């Protein structure tokens, strides 16, 4: 059973992934892989520096993520350039990790840009974590210290709620408490495990 998990920024995907992992799923996290493929010393980071210059490096020679975010969330062309370096590497790593998963596992691919990149058809089921944009913006500003402008830019770089909901097999509404979220995730996991 191969499951795609997606949702807008700060919708609660990582929280859902963590609960699914506790329930027994194998989770492959595209955001985490996207960090690994541009770690210090990788060919990915070298390509990013070739495209964007040394200004996107910290003094320690790592990717300066806030600086990179300020560039790419203000300019769709530059975002495409960064994605063209990172996405193929993430897909290759995710495929390797999936191949190493135990037979019969529920494998969950946590992919923020699942709707945007047209990958939904490749999964047995797609789970969409959904919240209104105001909730996303509040979580980004209050919990993560972003400015309202930064939050708006990131939400604006993504598919609309409607576009994400259109690819969903299951929609998890995450406007209640964390306890409500857990109950909902358990319900969806039981259905996924029964289908697999
Ligand atoms: C621009 C970067 C350096 C900013 O790093 P930062 O630590 O601030 O954010 P992080 O990587 O933790 O991402 C947080 C969230 O931002 C959103 N986001 C990230 N990249 C993108 C993108 N290209 N388009 C739209 N939303 C994005 C997602 O909702 C993601 O879950 C980083 O997001 C990045 O390398 N993005 C390009 C790679 C990518 O597309 N990643 C998404 C999954 S593969
Ligand atoms: N139901 C909820 N009630 C309160 N806080 C929540 C709820 N769901 C998630 N959060 C909090 O909101 C923040 C964003 O959640 P999470 O990190 O799971 O989102 P995400 O979709 O993975 O984000 P990103 O797209 O940036 O990777 C976290 O601090 C999380 O603890």
From TrEMBL:
GO MF annotations in UniProt: kinase activity
PROSITE patterns: DPCK (PS51219)
Pfam families in the record: CoaE
CDD domains: DPCK
Domain of life: Bacteria
Residues the record lists as binding ATP: 10-15
EC number from the UniProt entry: 2.7.1.24
Enzyme class: transferase
Coiled-coil intervals: none
Pathway(s) annotated for this protein in UniProt: Cofactor biosynthesis; coenzyme A biosynthesis; CoA from (R)-pantothenate: step 5/5
Keyword check for NADP: no
Protein name in the entry: Dephospho-CoA kinase
Organism from which the protein derives: Nocardioides koreensis
């Amino acid at each position: 059973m191969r499951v795609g998990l997606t949702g807008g920024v700060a919708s609660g995907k990582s929280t859902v992934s963590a609960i699914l992992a506790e329930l027994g799923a194998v989770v492959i996290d595209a955001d985490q892989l996207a960090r690994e493929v541009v770690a210090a010393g990788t060919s990915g980071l070298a390509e990013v520096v070739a495209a964007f210059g040394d200004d996107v490096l910290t003094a320690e020679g790592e990717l300066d993520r806030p600086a990179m975010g300020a560039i790419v969330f203000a300019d769709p062309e530059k975002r495409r350039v960064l994605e063209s370096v990172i996405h193929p590497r993430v897909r290759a790593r995710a495929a390797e990790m999936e191949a190493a998963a135990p037979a019969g596992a529920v494998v969950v691919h946590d992919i923020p840009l699942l709707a945007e990149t047209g990958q939904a058809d490749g999964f047995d089921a797609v789970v969409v974590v959904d919240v209104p944009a105001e909730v996303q913006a509040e979580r980004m500003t209050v919990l993560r210290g972003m400015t309202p402008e930064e939050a708006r830019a990131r939400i604006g770089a993504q598919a609309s709620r409607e576009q994400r909901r259109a690819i969903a097999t299951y929609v998890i509404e995450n406007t209640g408490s964390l306890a409500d979220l857990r109950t909902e995730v358990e319900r969806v996991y039981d259905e996924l495990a029964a289908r697999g």
